[in-house]
Amino acid sequence: MRIAVIGLGDIATKAYLPILTQMEGIELVLCTRHEQVLTQLARKYRINAYCTDYRQLLNLNIDAVMIHSATSTHFDIASFFLNHAIATFVDKPLADNFQHVEKLYELAEKNASPLYIGFNRRHIPLFNQHLPNLQQGQVQDILSFRWEKNRYQLPGDLNTFVFDDFIHPLDSVNVTAKSSLEEVHVVAQRQGKQLARLDVQWQQGQSIFHASMNRQFGNTTERVQVCLENKTYEFDSFVSGVLLTNEEQCKIAEKDWTPMLMGKGFHSMLEDWFNVVRANKLASHTIDRNLASHQLAEQLYQKIKKEITH
C-alpha cells in the first residue's frame, strides 16, 4: 500500500514516521513545502518518492493520504483528495469549524471515500484492555467518566483552545456521540482575553461525563477516571494506573518495554486506519462520533465567544 504523508512537522516526525516506516506492506511518499526537511527525512528513512506540492501526489500512484499539516490547511487539502476519491486521514481536529467538517464528510460520502480522523486516545491499549466496551459507547455500567488534560502556563485564544486542544478530552468522553449542548453544564475561566480553563459535564441515563482542561495548571498532565459500582479505574498516564475496589488498590500497567507510541494508541490507530483503507469504508458509528465531537466543539466555541462579547 502506497501512502502519502503530507506535512512533516513535530507530530508527523515524532508520532507517525517512526511507526509507518516500520510497518510491513507500507510504502511512503513524503510531501512538505520545506525542501530541506523533505530531503533530510527522505534520506533518513530511505524514501525515494517525495514532492513539495501535494497536488503532485496524484501522479505518484498513491492509495491514501495522511494529512499532518496545520489545522488551517486541513479543509483545502482534504477536499482536494476527497474530490479525487482518495482515502484520507487527517489529524484531529478535522477543521476549526463544524461547517468545514460537515462539508468534508459530504464530500467523502459523495465520492465513496473514507475520511478518517486521528483520535489516538480512542485506541489506548491499557484503557481498552480494562474497559473494552467503553469506546464502543456501551456505558450501561458506567457511573462516571472523567478525562482531564492540563498544561502549564498556556492560556490561549478561544478557537485554538477548543478545537486544537480541548477536543482531545471532549472526544475521549464523547463515546455516545453527543452533538448538542442541551443539558450540558459549561464552566469557563479566562485570563484577560484568553481562555485558561474549560469544564464540560453532562449526564446520560445514570452515566456522568466530564471533560476538563486547565491551561494554567502546575504541570502538563493527563488523567482519566472511570467509576463503576464500587469499582474505579484511575489512570495518571497512558501506560499505568490503579484499580480501586474492595477497599484495596491494585496497580495496573502496560508490559515492560512497551514502546511509548504503542502505549499512546498510535499503533492500534494506524492498524485501524489501514483496515479502513483496504475496505474503503469507515463505520457509520465512527462517522457519527467524529461529527458529534466537532459539532459539540463548535457549540462550545460559539457559546463562550458570545459570553466574552457580552
Automatic annotation (TrEMBL):
InterPro entries: Gfo/Idh/MocA-like_OxRdtase_N, Gfo/Idh/MocA_oxidoreduct, NAD(P)-bd_dom_sf, YceM-like_C
One Pfam entry name: GFO_IDH_MocA
Segments forming domain Gfo/Idh/MocA-like oxidoreductase N-terminal: 1-118
Source domain of life: Bacteria
Chain ranges of the YceM-like C-terminal domain: 138-235
GO molecular function: nucleotide binding
Protein name, as recorded: Gfo/Idh/MocA family oxidoreductase
